[in-house]
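Pasting as-is:
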Amino acid sequence: MATPSHPQYEAANYQACRPRYKASLADAIVAYHQQDNPQPATDLGVDVATGTGIFARRLAARFTKVIGTDISASMLEAARAASSEHPNIEYIEAASEHLAAINDHSVDVLTAATSAHWFDPEKFISEVQRVLKPNGTLAIVGYNGFLHFVDYPQCDKVSVSHCIGFNKLMSDLGQDAGYKMVANVYQTYHQLLARAKWTGIQRRIYPGTIEDEPLPDAPPIVSPEPVVVEFEATWRKLRGFYQTASGVVKYVQSHPNEENPADVAVRDLMATAGATDLDEKLRVQFGEVLLLCHPPQPNA
């Protein structure tokens, strides 16, 4: 699959055009980790499927050591180049379901930022339980591409239409399971973790309308404001963001002589907005989710 951890991804574009995680996101994760925790250590944080290390760098100031893992050597090369000011980060090539280099019960907080929908959920949860300390924290973070354009609300439906089209590209290739998991705002993980008796489960979503059909056994908490991502967007940067979408990457690979779907999307959005300047600054908001929990307790 052409996921953000796949070698087919162009690391420089991913690094330049993906949204950045808010500093308040790392603070929210640490605050949850420390709440009602008798020994809330912050010795080791692990960011799996780290890509170019965007979120690993957010964790660096809050943990004695951070390990970022990914299956893509090119992504890790870009991560190391971007992390020269963070000597406490180590990058390791590894799949998120197989963290052999990390010792049992050694991790205080493990994060999966906009990546968990590409994993085998049950294998991933099992591996996280192996490496987390008994009082550790798992944080799964995600956002979708269904943008709200603050100044051009007429673009919202156009954005949704094109993102559904990107998803359809993956569906045509039989690779849409990840997108479905994002679309249900990680309800799948919430249900699996609850059944496995993980504790303190909180699935915080924003806005409340992001979840079409809440499930009784996986109720969300609606956040009063976004805490996951910030995006200093322009039309040009939005085009670069769409170009990193898995469906678009796979389509371009399979249809090298066809127009890039990301170019089509941004052209349609600009026409809808009546915009002509690719470098116009935009105010956009993502739908987002933050899922937090602790491992099952031995006597639970």
